[in-house]
């Protein structure tokens, strides 16, 4: 599939890319563009909007919003699995209220 760069843009946007379209409507974005917009990650999608003026807009949609990526990182998921194991083993204390939790924490802090 041939990819050609369009002429320089006006400065507000990056230069465009001409992409060949296959007979079934399939096309491939250049690898650097997929990486830059996190479209190389599993589950990533493109929102396609057809405007009244005939323009098709492609809006990259990462599988996980940028503000939540920390949660899905390997380290954090390992910590989540550790907590799940403690819960499954019954190694947790339940409290009826926030005050009861704070009282429990204060008592732990005072233990020798």
Q: Which regions have little confidence, pLDDT < 50, spanning 5+ residues? A: none
| Computed Rg | 25 Å
Contiguous helical run count: 3
The number of E-state strands comes to 4
* Mean pLDDT over all positions: 85
Structural class of the helices, strands and pairings?
Answer: alpha+beta
Quote the beta fraction: 15-25%
Sheet with the most strands: spatial strand order: 1-2
Question: What percent of residues adopt helix (DSSP H or I)?
Answer: 25-40%
**Termini Cα gap:** 70 Å
Characterize the main sheet. Answer: 2 strands, antiparallel
| Shape verdict | elongated
3D structure, described in words:
There is one protein chain. By secondary structure, this protein is an alpha+beta fold. 30% of the residues lie in helices and 16% in strands. It has three helices and four strands, in the order ββαββαα. A two-stranded antiparallel sheet has the order 1-2. Strands 3-4 form a two-stranded antiparallel sheet. A hairpin with a 5-residue loop joins strand 3 and strand 4 (56-61). It is elongated. The model has no long low-confidence stretch (mean pLDDT 85).
């Amino acid at each position: 599939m041939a990819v050609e760069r369009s002429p320089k843009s006006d400065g507000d946007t990056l230069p465009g890319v001409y992409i060949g379209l296959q007979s079934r409507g399939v096309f491939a974005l250049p690898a650097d563009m997929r990486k830059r917009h996190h479209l190389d990650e599993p589950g990533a999608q493109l929102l396609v909007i057809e405007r009244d003026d005939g323009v098709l807009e492609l809006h990259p949609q990462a599988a996980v919003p940028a503000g939540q990526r920390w949660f899905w990182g390997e380290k954090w998921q390992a910590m989540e699995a550790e907590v799940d194991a403690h819960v499954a083993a019954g190694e947790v204390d339940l409290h009826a209220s926030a005050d009861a939790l704070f009282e429990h924490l204060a008592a732990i802090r005072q233990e020798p």
